[in-house]
Amino acid sequence: MKLSNKGIDLIKKYEGFRNNAYLCPAMIWTIGYGNTYYPNGKKVKAGDIVTLKEGEELLLHTVKRYEDCVNQKVTSNINQNMFDALTSFTYNLGCGAFLKSTLLKKVNLNPNDPDIAYQFTRWNKAGGKVLKGLTRRRNEESFLYFSE
To answer: What class of enzyme is it (predicted)?
Structure first.
């Protein structure tokens, strides 16, 4: 599967666009729509600048890695909304966290398990602190996951 426009828009909404490199709440240099690396593998660093067009291209390039992760690791039959929600989650947290998550285990056992909603909401911290923005994002991802 590929991320739909709904999924792209969800990522854009919560990542926001910043053309100047900044330290995210986890203290990692970030640019564009939450990107920490460029397509060539170089890390984002202080002082980096991208245009909106470059940020869009970077997002589309980066999202492929997370689509691949979700496509490879989800073994159950999921719909587009489920895929979009899981890809947004994985884009934000990384494939490593997704692979270790109870969320993935529950999705693979039964993609309609109501406890999946709770599993999304558990991932609302950065640097050990609950963030309102992450709480809102997880709630919206969960809502999208269970929408038809």
So the answer is: hydrolase
Catalytic residue among 15, 57, 140, 141: 15
- Output the CA torsion 85→131→24→140 (10° steps): 20
For the 5-145 domain, the top CATH level (class) is mainly alpha
15 belongs to the catalytic site: yes
Eight-class DSSP state of 130: E
Please state the domain extents for the chain.
5-145
DSSP codes joined into one string, 6-67:
HHHHHHHHHH--EEEEEE-TTS-EEEETTB-B-TTSPBP-TT-B--HHHHHHHHHHHHHHHH
Residue pLDDT tens, the chain, 148 long: 999 999 999 999 999 999 999 998 778 999 999 999 999 999 999 999 999 999 999 999 999 999 999 999 999 999 999 999 999 999 999 999 999 999 999 999 999 999 999 999 999 998 788 999 999 999 999 999 999 8
